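Translate sequence into structure tokens.
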Amino acid sequence: MRKGKHTWTFENKPVIIGSYGIAGPKEGKGPLKEYYDEVLRSDLFGEKTYEKAECKMQFTAIEKAIKKSGKQKEEIDAMFAGDLLNQIVSSAFSARELEIPYLGLYNACSTFAEGLLIASALIANGTLNDATCSTSSHYSTAERQYRYPLELGTQMTPTAQWTVTGAGCVVLSSKGEGVKIEGFTIGRVVDYDVTDTNNMGAAMAPAAAYTLEDHLKETGRTPDYYDMILTGDLGKFGVEMMNKLLLGDGIDVRNIHNDCGMMVFDEKQNVRMGGSGAGCSSLVFSTYVMSKLLDGSIKRLLFMPTGALMSKDSSLQGESIPAIAHAISIEGL
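Result follows.
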């Protein structure tokens, strides 16, 4: 059912029937370590390159999420996946191995939300029965693609974030009992002329604020309708900026808001503003958040991964950093 220009809700709510998350060694030492399904001993995951390791992470997360769901891969109608590497090769190479019909997606660090909303819509209208949604990222692949060669040992700036080494996958179905997708709000691209590629939080915060305001207005809800509003990887500075924008419009979410990028690491791990990356939100959601939705700790969740839609070339050419956020309304048990 359409609620406005950006928002839809479902009568036939898709069900999350399986999930799996893999964390890197650094992430495995963070506050959420007990919730991860698997923690790597090495960033290379037994491979010769970090890119191959990231591909293996996403492939493993998808394969094991399907196994946990009780399905066979032959029963999966479509695989929705994305990552940060050029031409989203981690996702494409995973699809090559799994032989599942594949739809590759790119919305930077908000790609997991994009996959959830597209898959949910196709399941709710009867086009698909079962689908996977997954994303991955890796500190070492993202760092040398977007910033500097690892060998330089470049220091992080105060506003920078640490790209999460991790992958997460969920399996959605038209049937079953469990956590349900209740609806979504599609984000719009927002650009506040931020040009600092080491300050993703500043670039993405306005998009998160716009999407949340659109969602609340079009559903007629107030923030306290939700037990938690969870952004993807704004980090400390981005969260502060988002709250200032929202407070300026009379919306206060500070008591119910959290951010995956702030949850995945602790202060002692020296990651500046927190975590980021396409795998940040999918890892936290597929493990920690799913456990809370299943045990009843969270009854209603608004999940809003955020993404900075730039490339290394666009930044070098002086372009600003456009951003987007999508909101997924989720019901726990």
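Note: The chain has two domains: 7-173, 179-331.
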